Automatic annotation (TrEMBL):
<dbReference type="GO" id="GO:0016020">
    <property type="term" value="C:membrane"/>
</dbReference>
<keyword id="KW-0732">Signal</keyword>
<feature type="domain" description="Solute-binding protein family 3/N-terminal">
    <location>
        <begin position="32"/>
        <end position="249"/>
    </location>
</feature>
<dbReference type="GO" id="GO:0015276">
    <property type="term" value="F:ligand-gated monoatomic ion channel activity"/>
</dbReference>
<dbReference type="Pfam" id="PF00497">
    <property type="entry name" value="SBP_bac_3"/>
</dbReference>
<dbReference type="InterPro" id="IPR001320">
    <property type="entry name" value="Iontro_rcpt_C"/>
</dbReference>
<protein>
    <submittedName>
        <fullName>Polar amino acid transport system substrate-binding protein</fullName>
    </submittedName>
</protein>
<feature type="signal peptide">
    <location>
        <begin position="1"/>
        <end position="21"/>
    </location>
</feature>
<feature type="domain" description="Ionotropic glutamate receptor C-terminal">
    <location>
        <begin position="32"/>
        <end position="248"/>
    </location>
</feature>
<dbReference type="InterPro" id="IPR001638">
    <property type="entry name" value="Solute-binding_3/MltF_N"/>
</dbReference>
Length: 253
């Protein structure tokens, strides 16, 4: 996320501090957990008709079951999710956020629910290494750690940001961008989904731990999410969902 956007997000979350955040008791009493996500990010959260589905969708629903509540999804732009959390638009944000020191100033994170990293994705004839990206047009999703990293790579022709993950992927599919920097599992999924595009995964740029965000200071909710997460990781639920989407267990080792 942009430095200034983050600074204002931090200010905002302080200013709105104790507005009307729902505590754990209020969530349990209502029976509903409001969860924000940007659902064009297959296979983590994406839509099937009106339903939000995917690895993180099923995981969030399994966590909610442990808490005795139901998830109500609130799809939103990725760059608005953490601000929305500070403004009490959601109880949780489950949208594959990398746990970064900047974001930790604005929100609190549960323990990581998977580990992955940013990778270069291009057509087989396209640039697959940082060296080959010199002078090339790179697409990324707005507000992501991939955008941040791509903007720091020296010598790129351009870095264009798109509001959704799907839009950024589209640019490399239709040849308007030479490469796309995104999550490794998102890249694998895109390669599988668009075989005619002959996509290839290139250099891994960095690794990150991915976490669920709660409003800054909501320690009881964060604790309940961590307990539920430990539960699904211990009872086989996590492994089952992970194997369904990835053929492997993607928890941090
Ligand atoms: N892992 C990246 C980040 O932390 C990207 C997450 C994008 N998520 C999404 N649902 N579009 O910024």
């Amino acid at each position: 996320m942009h430095k200034y956007a983050l600074a204002s997000l931090t200010l905002l979350s302080c200013a709105l501090g104790s507005a009307s955040a729902r505590d754990l008791a209020a969530i349990k009493a209502s029976g509903v957990l409001y969860v924000g996500t940007e659902p064009t990010y297959a296979p983590f959260t994406y839509t099937q008709g009106k339903k939000v589905v995917g690895f993180e969708a099923e995981l969030a629903e399994a966590l909610a079951r442990k808490l005795g509540v139901k998830v109500e999804w609130r799809p939103s732009g990725f760059d608005t999710l953490l601000i929305g959390l500070s403004r009490d638009r959601f109880d949780l944000v489950v949208s594959s956020h990398g746990i970064t020191p900047e974001r930790q100033k604005a929100v609190d994170f549960a323990n990581p629910h998977y580990c992955s990293g940013g990778v270069v994705l291009a057509k087989a004839s396209g640039p697959l290494t940082v060296a080959a990206l010199k002078g090339k047009a790179v697409a990324v999703q707005l507000g992501t750690t991939y955008a941040q990293r791509a903007q720091k790579l020296p010598g790129l022709g351009s870095v264009r940001t798109y509001p959704t993950n799907a839009d950024a992927l589209q640019m490399v599919l239709n040849g308007r961008a030479d490469a796309f920097v995104t999550d490794r599992f998102v890249a694998l999924e895109a390669r599988k989904k668009f075989p005619q595009a002959n996509l290839k995964l290139g250099e891994m740029l960095f690794q990150e731990k991915i976490g669920i965000a709660v409003k800054k200071g909501n320690a009881p909710l964060r604790g309940a999410v961590n307990t539920a997460l430990r539960g699904v990781m211990a009872d086989g639920t996590y492994q089952k969902i992970s194997t369904k989407y990835f053929g492997e267990d993607i928890r941090c080792k």
